[in-house]
Fold:
Amino acid sequence: MQFESYRQDPNAVGVRIEPFRDSECTVGGSCYVATYAWQGSVAKFRIEFDPLSKKNNNQFVTAIGKGRIISVAGSDSTLLLQQLKKALEAKSIPNHATRSSQIEFDYVTLGDHMSQAPEGGFNAEPPGNWAPNKLFLAGGEGEVFFNINPVMKMAEFSIKDPDYGDIVLRELAKVL
Structure:
């Protein structure tokens, strides 16, 4: 594998990640504490991915899993939400988001050992350490990519479609 450095993209917001294991983390899943620090503001949240299960849909097999984003006490998400608004092309930041201790999502993994493409997105060649995931929030009403590079200890929220921007931001504002 080649040496990788994080490529910032105007349609993505990067966060630092640290894996963790405790009694609350699903056995066989992946659990991370994510941190976004900028201009003295620090936002933190946990993100957990349950193991994937395979579903056969007549012509092809899909691997889908469940997960959750969990709020962390003392997190200041003001600047993170502003950056997500730009990246996801949302129209506004929810003023009075109903706070929740966690939101749940379904997800699919779109690949493994991928590298960031110069024009955005990911490629299988040359290989890298990225695993792109598509998260389905609000019962599937909103979609966003959450791409993970555990070697680099980086992850990013990345736009799926501008039509989902406000829905995704509304959901994330509940826990970030």
Residues 44 and 73 are 8 Å apart (CA to CA). The mean pLDDT is 89.
